[in-house]
Amino acid sequence: MNITRPSRIARSRQALPLFLFATCWSALASASVGERLSAAGITLPEVAPPVANYVSAVRSGNLVFLAGAIPRAEDGSVIEGQVGRELTVEEGYAAARNTGIHLIAALRAEIGDLEKVRRWVKVEGYVNAPADFSQHPAVINGCSDLLVEIFGDRGRHARVALGAASLPLNACVEIAAIVEVAD
After folding, report:
1. What tens digit of pLDDT does each residue of 76-133 get?
2. Cβ 81 vs Cβ 22: under 8 Å
3. Minimal CA–CA distance to 107: which of 153, 64, 45?
4. Are 104 and 111 in contact (CB under 8 A)?
5. Which CATH number fits domain 35-181: 3.20.20.70, 3.40.50.1980, 3.30.1330.40, 3.40.710.10?
6. What phi-psi label fits residue 7: left (phi over 0), alpha (psi between -120 and 50 degrees) or beta?
7. Cβ atoms 70, 78 nearer than 8 A
8. Helix %, strand %, coil % for the chain, to 5?
């Protein structure tokens, strides 16, 4: 059996997509958090004032505990409703991503420089959903995927994704986090 080998030109064409992927990945991997936010088209919002007697972030040693954040539209209104009833899983995912942006904003307000982040340690996600809803992880992935997109391996975290019969202000999700930071 005669097997023909691809020509040198054909082999180089096959290698080009891999080369481009490796080059782009390398550039992204070395990008700063600010550059990754810009590349994703994200401008961090002002931190919303707490709606009760608590603060948005507390630092204890090298850990920052971020209070539960909820998703907000550009006009500041809360993104409301139950996922699986008024909202789809995809809309819940987008709301969890939005909430992740608010968590990053609260973290920046607390520590100043997001390059100080060593690791997102834990994310706790709550989904406003009916009792028969079971796709909580798919919703909270909106936040988890964002953290890895912006912080790379430092964004990988332990997580819990739970359902709730209701959340404050009828928010569709609420997410809290613990982040390790450098001195």
Report:
1. 999 999 999 999 999 999 999 999 999 999 999 999 999 999 999 999 999 999 999 9
2. no
3. 64
4. no
5. 3.30.1330.40
6. beta
7. yes
8. 45, 25, 35
